[in-house]
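Support request from a user on the community tier.

User writes: "When I paste my structure tokens into the form, the page sometimes reloads and wipes my input. The last time it worked, I copied everything first. Here is what I submitted, just in case something in the input itself triggers the reload:"
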């Protein structure tokens, strides 16, 4: 798995790219939690759920189907003011689906674990991406503040944070100097940011 910081940072950058207007603190909090929530499955290890089990680490909570379910749940509960099936509603669903799905994709790029059950519960096969340069972090707060934890953060900053910052900067520059008023309106109704 990548760290909570990297999953959260990815969600913020994706949000900044997709939503041009100022979004509420509630929106940003929901985005960061949703991007990181798949790792709640590590709690199962303490209760004897094996790593490779459907509910084990990197199992169902890292799947595409979990991402769809959680995105729908979050938007329907936390953003009730958006009328269902409107353009704005679909945009929010797709955003939350993307950030939750990004969790499994980033984890599939790490050098440890059993892989990601992207198609759980219908297929329990675990997958990695062909390119796995990100160091897997140690579990536990104490271990995180070790040399291994530091190496992991450096790995994530170089391989995830910096490319995301470059992407965010490029999109921002294009909006300012290239697209100007000719860009498609990617904003969502103002009431979701209140």
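"...and here is what came back when it finally went through:"
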């Amino acid at each position: 798995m990548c760290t909570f910081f990297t999953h959260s940072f990815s969600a913020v950058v994706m949000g900044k790219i997709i939503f041009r207007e100022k979004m509420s603190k509630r929106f940003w909090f929901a985005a960061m939690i949703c991007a990181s929530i798949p790792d709640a499955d590590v709690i199962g290890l303490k209760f004897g759920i094996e790593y490779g089990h459907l509910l084990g680490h990197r199992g169902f909570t890292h799947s595409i189907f979990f991402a769809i379910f959680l995105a729908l749940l979050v938007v329907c509960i936390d953003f009730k003011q958006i009328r269902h099936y409107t353009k704005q509603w679909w945009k929010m669903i797709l955003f939350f689906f993307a950030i939750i799905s990004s969790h499994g994709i980033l984890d599939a790029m790490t050098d440890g674990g059993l892989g990601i059950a992207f198609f759980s519960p219908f297929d329990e096969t675990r997958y990695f991406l062909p390119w796995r340069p990100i160091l897997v972090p140690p579990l536990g707060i104490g271990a995180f503040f070790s040399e291994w934890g530091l190496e992991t953060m450096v790995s994530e900053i170089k391989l995830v944070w910096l490319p995301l910052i470059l992407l965010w900067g490029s999109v921002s520059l294009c909006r300012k100097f290239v697209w100007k008023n000719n860009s498609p309106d990617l904003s969502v109704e103002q009431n979701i940011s209140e």
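Agent notes: The reload is a front-end session timeout and is unrelated to the input. The two ends are 33 Å apart (CA to CA). The mean pLDDT is 89. Escalated to web team.
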